[in-house]
User: What shape does this take?
Amino acid sequence: MISSYFMKMGFGILALTILISVGLTEDFDDMSIYHLPSKWENQDGKEVVLSELKGNVLVVVMIYTSCQAACPILIGEMKSLEAQIREKSSGDVKYILVSIDPEQDTPERLKKLSQENKMSGDRWLFLRGTIESTRDFANLLAVKYTKISPVDFSHSNIISVFDKKGVLIHQQEGLRVDNKATIDKILELVE
Assistant: This one.
């Protein structure tokens, strides 16, 4: 039994050594979102792990599909950022909308929202996680939200920018604010 344990440990160490030598493990910054073990579901019903997004600048906002107040404005601001960045750079940028209402925001609802707002293609990613992973992610971004009725939430209005290593670099707070600093930061990160 003991020799079997040591044999397994030996194979485990050997496997880890091989993975490291061929570059299949990552050294992420301690503050990287790529350390989060949570799995998400995108608008196409496919599983996404945040570390799959490494190498891209990430522009992230938290919304919910039935929102009639702030979220449509945040969606408009994300579209504006994407259009302005696309005009000035062809760099690797992903625009990510994370649902704060994963119980209601099914992949079908997320897909419908993306189509209604003409936010399709590889640049756009709509995600939902578990209630726990959503709360953890929101806390990381300092986004506060609370359910105030069966269909409505009160929430922060923050657009967050992450560098290619998944480290939070910039945040834009508020609605209809000047986004020049956000655009400048994204352009700086894609260069």
User: Anything to note?
Assistant: The chain has a mean pLDDT of 85.
